[in-house]
UniProtKB/TrEMBL annotation:
Gene3D superfamilies (alphabetical): 3.10.620.30
Organism: Candidatus Desulfovibrio intestinipullorum
Protein name per its UniProtKB record: Transglutaminase-like cysteine peptidase
Pfam families: Peptidase_C93
Alphabetic keyword roster: Membrane, Transmembrane, Transmembrane helix
Membrane as UniProt keyword: yes
Length: 266
């Protein structure tokens, strides 16, 4: 049974800054549209801290297997939620204050809205034009249109855009500079919200891509009890159970945040 501990040096380096430096910035993957391997260790530290609901402290030892079992027991009874077993994990709600990089996006989006009738989003296409294009579309058809529209933007790493390893961009910033994986997920989430998709049916999921050994971010949309994934690496939209290489670490929408642990094999 693995035991994880942190040294004083590790705590001082990660405790205050770890949560706001989580995803999708260090290095491009094979496709050039996913994040870098250096985030995987950081993600594991944060996830273990979230399991306990407290930040890492010196001398703390956590039994990961026991913690996961507690989380799964706490998450029982949520079978009606399409996200209850997303990517074969269980999730437990966590305080939004643990994710300031996300709440900051929401605040900046309200201060600098882009979903205005005559606002140019891409080329000469305005928000009004995009709404007209997707009028009458629902479910997968709507999701495909939104996914394809934003995937046309170039992938640009945070280190190039913002001179930092990780930065979650609001849509107005994405329009100016484009972005990396979490930035695509953010703008798709907020676009679908404007088009009437409830927040409860969507989550931005930060995952480990086990094929590439990289951190990545995608948008999950619950449709009829099945979660479909909008990914910047492809215009195809697949159900989560077709993407077994993704292991979610945490997820957020504008109302809640969750951590994820692997469920028991059935």
């Amino acid at each position: 049974m693995p035991v994880v501990s942190w040294s004083q040096e590790q705590v001082s380096r990660h405790q205050t800054g770890a949560v706001r430096h989580l995803v999708c910035g260090a290095q491009g993957g094979a496709s050039g549209r996913t994040a870098g391997p250096g985030l995987l260790r950081l993600l594991s530290i944060i996830v273990l801290a979230l399991v306990l609901g407290i930040p890492p402290v010196p001398g703390l030892q956590v039994c990961a297997a026991q913690a996961a079992a507690r989380q799964e027991k706490a998450a029982q009874g949520k079978a009606g939620d399409g996200f209850a077993r997303v990517f074969r994990t269980v999730s437990l709600r966590r305080p939004m204050k643990l994710f300031p990089f996300w709440t900051s996006v929401l605040a900046r989006d309200k201060q600098n809205p882009v979903f205005l009738e005559d606002k140019i989003l891409r080329g000469r296409k305005t928000w009004k034009d995009l709404k007209s294009e997707v009028a009458g579309k629902e479910g997968l058809e709507l999701a495909r249109a939104v996914n394809r529209f934003w995937n046309a933007f170039p992938y640009i790493e945070d280190i190039r855009n913002w001179k930092r390893q990780d930065y979650w961009a609001a849509p107005y910033e994405f329009l100016k500079k484009s972005g990396d994986c979490e930035d695509y997920a953010i703008v798709k989430y907020l676009t679908l919200r404007q088009l009437g998709v409830p927040a409860s049916d969507m989550r931005i999921l930060v995952v480990n891509d086990t094929f590439r050994g990289l951190a990545h971010a995608v948008l999950g949309v619950n449709m009829g009890g099945t979660v479909y994934i909008l990914d910047n690496v492809s215009n195809a939209i697949l159900s989560h159970d077709k993407l077994g290489q993704y292991r979610p670490q945490f997820s957020v929408n504008e109302d809640n945040a969750w951590m994820h642990v692997r469920g028991k094999k059935k």
